[in-house]
Amino acid sequence: MFDGARFDVPPVGVKVLRSLAGFEDVSEYQGVSYCDAVRRATAGEELVVKPGSIEVCKWSPAVLGLKSAESEFELSLEPRLEPGVAGIYLARLDRFREGTEPDVVILRGRPAQLNRLAEELGDSALQRKYRGRIGWTALGVGEGGLSWRVMLVHALNYSLNLLIRMKWFDALVKKVFRKESVSKAFEKAAKNAVADMSMCRNSTVVPYVEDAGNISFFCTGGATWGGNSPRNMTSGFPYRLVKGP
Asked: Please, what is the end-to-end C-alpha distance for the chain in angstroms?
């Protein structure tokens, strides 16, 4: 079993299910977002995110293949898993269903920890398609110096980490992002300026479809609903790359 003790946050395994057979007894997630489901799995819960599980976030259902992309907003999100996903099974690696291997492992930790793993695996193990595009990845972003985009992401995440502790702000965020029009406007404003869909797309879908590792800054949802420390970054790696001999 992969040793995740070297990271600040327990690794979470992800299994994309085209059928729920064998997972009928797993608790169904019902809540605000995929990054919130990952947060709960990190705390020790075993969950399946199903179509209809996500009540607020407008990004993750289509990206994760839990519904077909229909609106202009959903069609603009890429890459996406093929629709028809029956569920996304989430559990910490030390609690992952016996006899089942994850497709992807979500790893979060200090930048130095993730960079060290990337160096050990080698550049050929890392995705290249989205390199340099901060919405999708931290790979190739700010090379040769700390760019304004990287500083903006860090400043935003530290601010959100403080604000989300206030009940009124948490309630406001949940209310406004129930509207696709708000999500669409936010997407246009944030695209290529800050990290976007850090847990669902960058740490799950990109590693899955590219069969390669990806490292990402946290997006707004990852920093708020996901409860992630702004000192850390997130990543996703195909399990085959990190499981060891």
From this structure: 9
Dihedral sign of CA atoms 57, 206, 228, 37 in order: positive
Residue 210 in contact with residue 127, Cβ under 8 Å?
A: yes
Residue with tokens 């997972």: 23
**What is the DSSP track for 53-118?**
-BSS-SSHHHHTTSS---SHHHHTS-S-PPS---EEEEEEGGGSPTT---SEEEEEE-HHHHHHHH
CA gap 240, 229 in Å, rounded: 27
Residue 171's pLDDT band, with cuts at 50, 70 and 90, is: confident
Q: Find all residues with CB under 8 Å of 74, minimum gap 6, and list them.
A: 58, 62
Spell out the residues 6+ positions from residue 123 whose beta carbon is closer than 8 angstroms to its own.
Answer: none
- 71, with CB counted inside 10 A (0-12, 13-18, 19+), is exposed
Give the model confidence (pLDDT) of 37-68 as tens digits.
999 999 999 999 999 999 998 889 999 999 99
